Structure formats: structure tokens, C-alpha cells
Amino acid sequence: MQIKRYEANSIQDALTRIRADMGEDAVILSTKRLSGGRQPLFEISAARDDRDNVASPGRGTSGKVERKGDQPEGVERLAGRIEELTVLVREVREGAAVRRELTELKNTVNTLFDLLDLRDREKENHSGVFYHLISNGISSERARRLMSLVRKVTPVGRGEEAEQLDAVEELIRTSMKPLPGEVKGKRTLAFVGPTGVGKTTTIAKLAARYALAEKRSVGLITTDTYRIAAVEQLKVYGKIMGLPVEVAGDGVAFRDALKKFSDRETILIDTPGRSRKDGNHLLKLKGIIRDAPVEMHLLLSPTASREHMLDAAERFGIMDYGSIIFTKIDECTRFGPIYDVVDQVGKPVSYLTNGQNVPQDIEVAEPGKIAKLIVRNRLN
Ligand SMILES: Nc1nc2c(ncn2[C@@H]2O[C@H](COP(=O)(O)OP(=O)(O)OP(=O)(O)O)[C@@H](O)[C@H]2O)c(=O)[nH]1
Ligand SMILES: [Mg+2]
């Protein structure tokens, strides 16, 4: 499998380049308009299966790039424009850019309140490290606690800030729950989390990792029967990687699917993202999975506010998740709220995802890496 990402001023341009570059069998995985800049800019991810005998799905935003050479040029241009409009309509509907701005604003206001709170409540002379932690988005309460622990091991003077920062990083690293070591034998992993957090994309990345890199036999199950597009999205990935996909909308179908995959070493289960108002959704999901031996991963993204992540971490508690995956790290500039979440729930972090590219944009989340991210806003 070969997956590539293209940027172009129009979808038509991108399709032409993809056809020339990857051939007629390339499959479009995602189309997205990038914000900023005067000219419109689109990002298109395309994949090609290197094996000959895999059928490609139909055309569309998740379909095969059809041969259009025998169509009049005007028709082809029109088709490209329609694709662009589809992306724009989807974007307006989701209000993604506006939501991102609002979240950023909310985070800034939070930080401001944290600082005001400090000014009112404390006359203590805090070091720059303390303010650094707060401006990274760690709550004042947790930053205060970290600093009082740090003061016990390092001097408070201004000259030692670099040393204090190292000590905070080390403190966070050692406070992280380690992941259980390499799990051998059969594994069944389910992925839950808020709408659009990246569940299906993360499953595709992990499926590729397990199937292609680790040569395990992998089966995919989706319990997301709310949206046809959701089933299609997983099926496209399944097709590209040559992995079977089962759809299970209720407990009986789910157990059937598990039975069908009884010879598979790794089973990955996709679940639907539903509005937080739909309280029954999690109960229903729990009812479907019931007592199946599943490793449950909760996906959260620091592109959401601290409150949003803490709220989701609590709501999804009913699913008994054993670890957290933080997604869309690449879209974020401050990572302090990750510390609040991890400290609050006391669960290990299994993976970090840092981009839309399947399969490469995912990393195992070692405690040292997360501590660096929280304290220094970078992964390495
Ligand atoms: N920048 C960035 N985008 C990501 C990442 N992971 C997923 N996405 C994008 O986020 C969007 C939603 O991803 P999905 O995998 O469909 O999310 P989901 O949680 O399955 O969504 P629902 O099933 O609707 O709840 C897609 O445009 C993905 O390409 C990531 O690590 N970084
Ligand atoms: Mg999904």
C-alpha cells in the first residue's frame, strides 16, 4: 500500500496529479480545505494498493479516481468544482475552523482566570517555571502542586529555572502510569471517544501497523451503523489493506463477528461518535460489547478545551477504558491540559496521533515523550 498527501489549489488539479502520479487505481481517502491564505488550498490524501487483485471502491470523496480522459474537459472541470463545493459545504456545516478558534479562545480565557486567581489568592513569589506551566494550560491548582514538589528537590532562586523545569518534566514522567508491556497472543481492542476525535483514522493507522509491520492477522469490526459513510470509511481502509470488515449494530451481530474473527490475532473495533446529549449511546455500546474481553482505548484530543477533555474522560468512564490515546497533536500548540486529564483519571497513555496521514502519523506514547510534550510543547 502506498499513501500520499497532496496539496493543490483545486481538487481537479489534485486529481489530475494523483492520476499521473499514482495511476488510475488510486483511491481518495480524504479531502480537506486548508484554512488561511488568499487562494483556496485543498489537501487530498490518496492511496494505492500495490497488489493487483483488490477491487477499488466507487468514486466520491472516498472513492477511486476514475479515468476521465474520454470525457469533455468541461465535464471534468465541473466534476472537480462539485467536489470542491462538497468540501466547502461539509466544512461550513461542521464549522471546524470557527470551533477551533473558539476552543483556543476558551483555553486562553482559562489561563487568564488561572492567573487572576493566583494574583488574588497568593502573595507567594512564584518562579517563571510556574507561569510557564500555567501558560501551557496546566490548571493553577496542579501547577502549584507540581511546584511545591519541585521545590523540595531543587532551589527556588531565579537562576535555577532550567533546573526546575527539568525537575517538573521528570516529576511528570515518573507520575505517568506505565503501559503494560508488549501483549502477546490474541488482542481485541475497541476505540471510543467524542465525535470526530479520530477513532476510525487511528484504527486504520494501527491496523496497518499490526498487519503490515508486525505481520499479525487483523480483523476490523464497526459498531457504527448510524452513518452509512462511517461503515464505508472503514471498508475503504479494509479494502486497501486487504483486511476483512464486519458490521455489528447489536450484541448478536457483534458476537457473530467475534466468532468469524476467532482465528485473527488482532481485532480492532470502531465505535460511533455521538453527541454528548445522546446519553443512551454509551449504554447501548456497553450492551453490545458486554463481557467480551476487550482492551478499551479512549481517544481525546487536546484541540478541545481542558474542561471538554475532563468531561469526556468522566462520561466515557462507563466504558471502563484502560488507556487513553491523544489525537491531533499536530493541530495543537499547548499540551498542559494532557497533564490535568492523565493526573485526574490515572490511566496510562497508549498512543499519540500527530497527523492525518495513514499509517505513519501515530507514535507509541512513552511517559518521557508525554512529559516533554506537556512541559516543552514538543515531542522530541
Ligand atoms: N490533524 C489531524 N487530523 C486527524 C488526526 N486523526 C484524525 N484526523 C482527522 O480528523 C477527522 C475525523 O477523523 P475520523 O477518524 O473520521 O474521526 P472519528 O472519531 O472516527 O469520527 P466519528 O466516527 O464521526 O465520531 C478526519 O478528517 C481525520 O483525517 C490527527 O492525528 N491529526
Ligand atoms: Mg469514525
Q: Notable features of this structure?
A:
380 residues, alpha/beta, Rossmann fold, 3 domains, 8-stranded mixed β-sheet, 3-stranded antiparallel β-sheet, globular, binds guanosine-5'-triphosphate, binds magnesium ion
CATH architecture heading of the largest domain:
3-Layer(aba) Sandwich
What would the CATH topology of the largest domain be? Rossmann fold
Return the average pLDDT rounded to an integer: 83
- How many domains make up the coordinates? 3
**How many DSSP helices?**
13
Quick one: how many beta strands? Answer: 11
Helix content: 40-55%
The biggest beta sheet reads: 8 strands, mixed
Structural class: alpha/beta
Over the alpha carbons, how many angstroms does the gyration radius reach? 23 Å
Strand residues, percent: 15-25%
Find the CATH superfamily of the largest domain.
P-loop containing nucleotide triphosphate hydrolases
**H/E order of the elements?**
EHEEHHHHHEHEHEHEHEHEHEEH
Task: Please provide a written account of the structure.
It is a single chain. With 380 residues, the protein is an alpha/beta fold. The chain has 3 domains: 2-94, no CATH class; 98-175, no CATH class; 187-376, Rossmann fold (3-Layer(aba) Sandwich). Helices cover 46% and strands 16% of the residues. It has 13 helices and 11 strands. The strands form 2 sheets. The chain has an 8-stranded mixed sheet, sandwiched between helices. Strands 1-3-2 form a 3-stranded antiparallel sheet. The longest helix is centred in the N-terminal third of the chain and has 26 residues, at 96-121. The chain is globular and about 70 Å long. The site of magnesium ion has 5 residues, from α7.
